[in-house]
Amino acid sequence: MQFIETFNLTALLDTFVSLLGAFLLGTLIGVERQYRQRSAGLRTNVLVAVGAAAFVDLALLIAGTDGAARVISYVVSGVGFLGAGVIMKDGGNVRGLNTAATLWASAAVGACAGADRLAEAGLVTVFILAGNTLLHPLVNAINRLPIDEGGSEANYEVRVLAETHLAPEIRERITDVLKQAKYPVADIKMEPGTDDRTEIVATLVSTTVDAQELNAAAGAVRRLAGVRRVSWEVSTLDS
């Protein structure tokens, strides 16, 4: 039997230490994720870390360091697909990016443990926990700062409520007005409103905007026949 020929108690103990290290470190990461009620919590992060450690350890036993290096590259891409499963788009917002990144980092912890680099695995774990905890207050503070429309790249939408029977003509005029104001339109669509009103939504080409200039352009649109209301809004772009 191949098992009898290949069995090595020392190697088995080495594998046990690697998997145990991945399990414990993955647990530390997962506890923080579970506490924050993320979609990928304790068990997911532990499984990712242990799985990555098992693949790398097995490759190290069978094919040596060259084989382990190849497997690590496959782990990186494979966990990337797994992380994509927790990313969700909700309208203009994208959720789950941090959770996906944490899973990816958990795989790095497991790969370090599987390659018998437990000290490095522990160090990576410390930085992951620091990123998810110590930086959280800083993120909240930045998010509370007002958006500087003149200095930040963002997504701008001009919303126009118009009389339905004039909506197609107004749509063309909106494009012309914004183009003259040097704010070209990337996309423009009409959405059904109430009664005889239609909402026209013009999304500007990604750029920086001067609020006064855009207000002036919105005023020009407001003066078009059949226009009842004009507003514009801004949201930061995901990067």
TrEMBL record:
Domain of life: Bacteria
Localization in the cell: Cell inner membrane; Cell membrane
Transmembrane segments: 12-32, 44-65, 71-88
Membrane topology: Multi-pass membrane protein
Entry annotated with the keyword rRNA-binding: no
GO cellular component, one term: plasma membrane
Domain MgtC/SapB/SrpB/YhiD N-terminal, first and last residues per copy: 19-139
Keywords attached to this entry: Cell inner membrane, Cell membrane, Membrane, Transmembrane, Transmembrane helix
Family designation: Belongs to the MgtC/SapB family.
Function of the protein: Virulence factor required for growth in low Mg(2+) medium and for intramacrophage survival. May be involved in regulating membrane potential by activating Na(+)/K(+)-ATPase.
Name of this protein: Protein MgtC
Gene source species: Chelatococcus asaccharovorans
The organism's taxonomic lineage, starting at the top: Bacteria, Pseudomonadati, Pseudomonadota, Alphaproteobacteria, Hyphomicrobiales
